[in-house]
Design brief:
single chain; 2,3-Dihydroxybiphenyl 1,2-Dioxygenase, domain 1; about 40% strand; 14 strands; alpha/beta
Amino acid sequence: MRIRQIALVGEDLAAAKADIVDVLGLGGDYADPGVKKYGLHNAVWPIGDTFLEVVSPTQEGTTAGRLLSKRGGDGGYMVILQVDDMKAARDLATAKGVRFADKFDGDGYGFTHLHPKDVGGAILSLDEMIPYDRWEWGGPKWKENVKTDVSTKIVGAEVQADDPDAMSKRWAEVLGRERTGGGEAWTIPLKDGEIRFSKARDGRGEGVAAFDVAVRDPDAVRAKARARGRLDAEGNVRLCGTRIGLVKV
């Protein structure tokens, strides 16, 4: 099980794209036509063999639009994990009392969106791809868009919660993973990454607060962010309302 994609939600897709491409040094993006049925348009970039997505509402009454209102602006939206056995993952979630908000099974790929009210914090998606390095949501030619001279991989996500202990315990049991930590700081280790749980203190409520990107030169990335006004008072890079943890390669 690994983090394969992080999705953010933004009011202005074009503005978010401009910041993300410049600061993280990404290549071309893919507009997934499949999100139209949710009243959205989007952009998906490969970061190595992991992916970053921004969705933006194109109509009223969308889940993404409601999240923008609830959390007071742009921010984290989904954590998408790749699993080896979709049936086993679904069976475990069902056994733990989790409803499916949406699911799809295609030719060698599929997804299961777990209902956020049953897990907490964010939309958690379990996705399967055959072969393993395939990623349908990145488009058929995603490997041509890979550019890793600045950023090489997404390696973590942070979900903030009113009760990090309870939420991390719930995620761990639904995913069938062990957790480490204690108090207000918990971690679920995954292949090549982790999901952290922290106390919500910024007044925005529960949700994806941050994700970590492996980069070659953190100082250069911060300089790009500063030039675009995307460095906060604590010196953190913030893109599309989300804090970016920079992990030096």
